[in-house]
Amino acid sequence: MSMKWSALHDASAVVCRLAGMQPEMRKPEVRNFPAIMRDTGGWRYDLAKQGVDDLAAFMEPGLAALLAVSAKGQSPAAAATALWQEFLEARSALLTLIPPLGIKRRP
After folding, report:
1. Percent of the chain as helix, strand, coil, to the nearest 5
2. Distances in Å between the alpha carbon of 43 and those of 14, 38, 40, 78, 97?
3. For residue 63, what are the CA distances in angstroms to 13, 16, 20, 27?
4. Is the pTM of this model over 0.70?
5. In sequence order, which residues have a C-beta less than 8 Å from that of residue 10 and are 6 or more positions away?
6. Torsion angle of alpha carbons 75, 79, 81, 87, nearest 10°?
7. I need a surface site. Which of 20, 28, 46, 77 has the fewest CB within 10 A?
8. Backbone angles phi and psi of 45, in degrees to 5
9. What is the torsion angle, in degrees rounded to the nearest 10, for the CA atoms of residue 81, residue 87, residue 90 and residue 94?
10. Tens-level pLDDT at each residue, the chain (107 residues)
11. Contacts of 24 (CB under 8 A, 6+ apart)
């Protein structure tokens, strides 16, 4: 999951650029999400893995479409902004899987 998570964030940086925005600085919980979920285990880890796969399922073709539009000399900014917003919302939902402080993680 760690490699896919990192690749998704690399892709999201390209989407930002295509939207005319600066790529975000990743907060620690974003950078460390795969490790946190691995350490947490259980149902949260299973949902996180599925969620990352779901995120990739729309980001990969979305980015390919944006790059195709850009290659034709057209501006992908509006579509890139929409894809960026979808990415942020989906990622935000995944980050809610991080257990609150005080919840024991799997040994």
Report:
1. 75, 0, 25
2. 32, 11, 9, 36, 9
3. 11, 11, 14, 23
4. yes
5. none
6. -140
7. 28
8. -65, -45
9. -140
10. 999 999 999 999 999 999 999 989 999 999 999 999 999 999 999 999 999 999 999 999 999 999 999 999 999 999 999 999 999 999 999 999 999 865 555 55
11. 12, 16
Residue 27 tokens, joined: 């907060």
Domain ranges, ordered by start, for the chain? 2-95
Residues with Cβ within 8 Å of residue 106, at least 6 apart in sequence = 39, 40, 41, 42
Residue bearing tokens 């599925």: 50
Q: Are 88 and 39 in contact (CB under 8 A)?
A: no
- Radius of gyration of the chain, Cα coordinates, nearest whole angstrom: 15
